[in-house]
Design a protein that fits this description.
Helix content of chain B: 25-40%
CATH architecture of chain A: Orthogonal Bundle
Largest sheet of chain B: 6 strands, mixed
Strand order of the largest sheet of chain B: 6-9-10-3-11-12
CATH topology of chain A: ABC transporter involved in vitamin B12 uptake, BtuC
Number of domains of chain A: 1
CATH topology of the largest domain in chain B: Rossmann fold
Radius of gyration of chain B: 24 Å
CATH class of chain A: Mainly Alpha
Number of strands of chain B: 24
Structural class of chain A: mainly alpha
Helix content of chain A: over 70%
Number of domains of chain B: 3
Oligomer: heterodimer
């Protein structure tokens, strides 16, 4: 019989326990990634080749950037289904501007330089994210519905702009002063494709935002208990709008990178990528109920999904099986945590009696 | 800081209407610097509404507020804070996923060059917790703290704000008597510094002990006010109820005690939450409850009462031991099966564990007995309706109809709904965890009257309480728990408050030594 008060109840409850649960979830995602890497490297010599790793990481990067934006939204208990369409719309806007945009009410055609193209494309993403935020935060429309609607609206605009076609003249012309779109946004500094650099920078910046700024604190607070956060003076409405703006911004960045990567602006670009982004966030240990999750976990999640899919392609698994396996992995990733919880509990009871 | 006796905050002719309901009718209220003003009133009397108005959470329909003589309109909690008004909420307003430190500085984060200044926040947190005599690491997540400590965090947050007016709405509902004593010391310090404190509590004695001036609200109107030195409990209670009130003295009920309904044999229950821990919240617990008997379990916070109740209800497992319901072994049954077998649990935290906020009064009432209205796969709505109407009448829920949202009810009436829901399942035994937490004297009496009525008809009742008077007044046997063990079983007619108190406390201190 142990009645020492320091060992009972209080000491347990009041010491700052290192957050074991969150740690285990991330470790587990890392282990899953390790298993994927080992498994595919045994089945294919190409898997671990430098060029293949770079290629796969470039795919991962696109999804990871979207997933970081998605993480912010999910941390607040929301969801953003419109990011895939915003990728398409921003990419198409970039392509449209590179082709030359007729100035309304004149016979002039404007050829903005590539930095202006970048900024306008990003603003388009930010604007649609802002609309999402207003619908959710000001009109109290459920995030699922608001962003589902925006998914169709943004995709519709993308198709309207191109009239269903694809823009391929993205190189620009020296005499118009708008060259460099492809060389800049599909550049490979130090031999590594730009999307990977962007993923790294976004990863660091958003990590700092979440952990080191007041905005990050507000986000975790309003995701954990919005009522309590509001009562203590956290600007919950502002936070709620801002996360959708940031998600739209991330999506627009992917849109521009994607267009440059493909050398073409395709209106269907980014279709279904919102689902991959959600999967990455969830595999990374983020709770859909809000308040829990990290950038680090999300990045690991994006690698799990990306390496898995590319690995399956590499060893020649059929497209149909790829989807089935990807789905199963998502379910298993979440189920494992619950199973572990049940096992732990049984173990505890057994060892006690 | 303002001189003692200055009027710090004043509400003049304040009214508040929610639809057709008048929560406040042209009420005048004031609180002075350096004094504790206590606000008494039954549930629904308008206390919380008044406090919400002063704290900027609600806006008055008419009337004026002045702070230090200046007319102001307080439109948001942030604005109230800027005016020096802070509130400790009755229902905890913490983010469970964040640390103690983050909760304390929520909404007013300390920055250094644009980034979070965690070390400063932690220092302040440690300081204020030290003042409250609690050793909690600032980085502990709030969800890992027991309810009492969460309330301490809520109080600590208010203390870190240098406020001129501090509103405390039921600050002690989850605190142990030691913790209350520390809080009172802190309140006296604040008083000395000239803070105006407005105090609300359902513990009348406790409130009288700490306050200087008492104000009573009834039906949205101020009906009496006096210096605490000039009044007593009777004054408070009769003004609250608007009639004379005599405390229900215990008489031996003379109820026939029937067969054994519930038998707990050598129960051991593990501490919750911490996976690696092999510590017991409850050990060697054996108890028998007979039909028609009301048994209370008294103990301080952390005595293991809640863990015991959860395990009895089937939400937690016995590590070892047996649970018999009329000789049937129910140890392994799930919550649903236990309810079917005739056990009902009324949880401690009715907001979190008891009510479905989105559902109506009626749906909340029929939640546990829903299955009995299903015929051939469909709900027999008319039968359900009859049962609900009956329950509203039987447990005396004050509501304008079964379709009203549950949120429209006062705390006491919400508790009656939770109780009524379990009574609808026709239980053999009812388990109640702190059935009167945060509800007023009148409703308390009504709830225990209901239990007594049912006991006359053979229901066995086992309830947990942290108020000795409840155990003394309403139960046939008092089981005192401390640190997971039974330390005494008393008959209310043969024991004094002091004896119970010392049984619960002395063991605690003895163990500590």
């Amino acid at each position: 019989m142990n009645l020492n008060p320091l060992k009972r109840g209080e000491s347990n409850a009041t010491s700052a326990k290192f957050d074991r649960r969150a740690f285990i979830v991330e470790i587990r995602a890392l282990i899953a990634l390790a298993i994927i890497v080992i498994f595919f490297s045994l089945l294919s010599d190409k898997f671990l080749q430098y060029s293949n790793l770079v290629l796969m990481t470039r795919h991962v990067a696109m999804n990871a950037i979207l997933a970081i934006g998605m993480l912010l939204v999910i941390l607040n208990g929301g969801i953003d289904l419109s990011v895939g369409s915003i990728v398409g719309l921003s990419g198409v806007v970039a392509g449209y501007l590179m082709q030359g945009a007729p100035v309304p009410f004149t016979s002039h055609v404007a050829y903005p330089n590539i930095w202006a193209v970048l900024v306008i494309s990003l603003i388009v993403g930010i604007f649609f994210g802002w609309l999402n935020g207003l619908l959710v935060a000001k009109l109290n429309i459920a995030p699922f519905i608001a962003t589902l609607g925006m998914l169709y609206v943004a995709r519709g605009f993308a198709k309207l702009i191109t009239n269903g076609e694809t823009f391929t003249k993205l190189a620009g012309e020296p005499n118009l002063g708008n060259t460099g779109f492809l060389t800049t946004f599909a550049a490979k500094p130090l031999g590594i494709p730009l999307p990977i650099w962007v993923m790294i920078v976004f990863g660091i910046v958003f990590s700092i935002i979440l952990n080191r700024t007041a905005f990050g604190r507000w986000l975790y607070a309003s995701g954990g208990n919005p009522r309590a956060a509001a009562l203590t003076g956290v600007p919950v409405t502002k936070v709620n709008i801002r996360i959708y703006v940031l998600s739209g911004f991330c999506a627009a960045a992917v849109g521009v990178l994607f267009t440059a990567d493909l050398h073409a602006a395709i209106p269907n670009m980014g279709e279904f990528s919102e689902l991959n982004a959600i999967a990455a966030v969830v595999i990374g240990g983020t709770a859909l109920s809000g308040g829990r999750g990290t950038v680090r976990g999300t990045l690991i999640g994006a690698f799990v999904i990306g390496f898995l899919v590319d690995g399956l392609v590499l060893i020649g698994v059929s497209v149909f099986w790829q989807e089935t396996i990807k789905g199963a992995v998502i379910i298993v990733a979440v189920a494992v945590e619950e199973i572990q919880r049940i096992l732990e509990r049984r173990q505890k009871l057994k060892s006690a009696s | 800081m303002a001189k003692k006796g200055t009027i710090a905050i004043e509400a003049h002719g304040v009214s508040k209407n929610y639809g057709a309901t008048e929560a406040l009718k042209s009420a005048n209220f004031q609180a002075e610097s350096g004094k504790v003003t206590v606000l008494f009133g039954e549930n629904g009397a308008g206390k919380s509404t008044m406090m919400k108005i002063l704290a900027g959470i609600e806006q008055p329909s008419s009337g004026e507020i002045s702070v230090f003589g200046e007319k102001v309109s307080i439109n948001s909690p942030a604005q109230a804070q800027a005016l020096g008004i802070t509130i400790i909420h009755q229902e905890l307003s913490l983010c469970p996923n964040l640390s103690v430190r983050d909760n304390i500085f929520m909404g007013r984060e300390k920055l250094k060059r644009g980034f979070m200044n965690y070390s400063h926040e932690e220092d302040v947190t440690r300081q204020v917790l030290k003042q409250l005599e609690e050793i909690i690491d600032p980085k502990t997540k709030v969800e890992n703290l027991r309810l009492g400590l969460q309330q301490i965090v809520e109080i600590a947050r208010a203390l870190t704000i240098n406020s001129k007016v501090l509103i405390m709405d039921e600050p002690t509902s989850a605190l142990s008597s030691t913790e209350v004593a520390v809080l009172f010391k802190v309140i006296r310090d604040l008083k000395a510094k000239g803070v105006a404190i407005i105090y609300i509590s359902h513990h009348l004695e406790e409130a009288l002990e700490i306050s200087d001036h008492a104000v009573v609200l009834r039906d949205g109107q101020i009906v009496a006010s006096a210096d605490v030195a000039d009044i007593d409990m009777e004054w408070v209670v009769s003004n609250m109820l608007g009639r004379a009130f005599k405390e229900q003295a215990h008489k031996d009920s003379g109820r026939a005690k029937g067969r054994n309904v519930l038998e707990i044999k050598n129960a051991k229950i593990l501490e919750r939450g911490i996976a690696t821990s092999k510590l017991y919240a409850v050990e060697d617990f054996s108890l028998t409850v007979k039909a028609g008997e009301i048994v209370s379990i008294y103990g301080l916070m952390g005595a293991g009462r809640t863990e015991l109740m959860e395990a009895l209800a089937g939400r937690d497992d016995f590590a070892s031991g047996e649970l018999l319901l009329e000789d049937q072994d129910v140890t392994k049954l799930s919550v649903q099966d236990r309810i079917k077998a005739g056990m009902g649990l009324v949880p401690e935290d009715r907001q979190r564990d008891g009510l479905i906020q989105q559902m109506s009064v009626g749906s909340n009432l029929s939640l546990a007995s829903y299955m009995s209205h299903i015929k051939r796969g469909f709900v027999n709505r008319s039968a359900e309706k009859v049962k609900i109407e009956e329950a509203i009448k039987n447990v005396r829920v004050k509501t304008s109809g079964r379709n009203m949202p549950i949120e429209s009810l006062s705390g006491g009436n919400q508790q009656k709904v939770v109780l009524g829901r379990m009574l609808l399942t026709d239980p053999k035994i009812l388990l109640l965890d702190e059935p009167t937490r945060g509800i007023d004297v009148g409703a308390k009496g009504e709830i225990f009257d209901l239990l007594r009525e049912r006991a006359e008809k053979g229901l066995a009742v086992l309830f947990v309480t942290s108020e000795i008077s409840e155990a003394m007044n309403w139960s046939d046997r008092i089981v005192v728990m401390s640190r997971g063990h039974i330390v005494g079983i008393f008959k209310p007619t043969e024991v004094t408050r002091e004896q119970i108190m010392s049984a619960a406390e002395a063991t605690k201190e003895g163990v500590r030594a």
